[in-house]
Design brief:
single chain, alpha+beta, four-stranded mixed sheet, 4 strands, disordered N terminus
Length: 167
């Protein structure tokens, strides 16, 4: 009987030191959302401006407010994801929840994302997105800001991540 009590006491003792409080978890979450804002400088801003122009032109044509470009957090997270897509050689929305939560931590009320690859200019990628119901829904969504990750891979093929969010 003593070994069982000692084992239970040992387990309780270990569990009390292994558990995390909500405060500890909040600190861990905040640390997880830290990002190097210099990543935003790596996007192709000329193409981002072109995409923004065509998206805002479309939004205006249906009575929506223009989207402002975020050259900090939104773009840093978008660049990070574009680099990931290039590394895995696959267009995807992997880990979108992380980007969504990170921007929510920055004050976003809602977040959406469009991705693409293989287009050589902003007009053609916007045209493709407008021809896709899910991408068009983001373009026409209740968003106020957008971040961009636009980069070519080693072969010169462009990968695009556009994060939409509302503050």
């Amino acid at each position: 009987m003593k070994p069982i009590k000692l084992s239970l006491l040992a387990m309780v003792f270990l569990m009390s030191f292994a558990s995390c409080s909500k405060e500890d978890m909040a600190t861990e979450i905040i640390e997880d959302y830290t990002i190097d804002l210099n990543l935003a400088k790596e996007t192709n801003w000329e193409m981002a401006e072109e995409i923004t122009y065509y998206i805002n032109q479309h939004r205006s044509s249906i009575g929506l407010n223009p989207i402002e470009v975020d050259q900090q957090h939104g773009s840093a997270y978008a660049v990070e994801h574009t680099k990931y897509m290039i590394a895995v050689e696959n267009m995807n929305h992997d880990n979108f929840h992380y980007r969504e939560q990170a921007l929510t931590y920055q004050g976003a009320q809602r977040v959406g994302e469009n991705v693409a690859f293989g287009y050589q200019d902003g007009q053609s990628v916007v045209r493709a997105w407008l021809n896709s119901p899910t991408h068009k829904r983001n373009i026409e969504g209740d968003y106020t800001r957008s971040g961009f990750g636009i980069m070519p891979n080693a072969n010169g093929t462009y990968y695009f991540t556009q994060l939409f969010y509302k503050i």
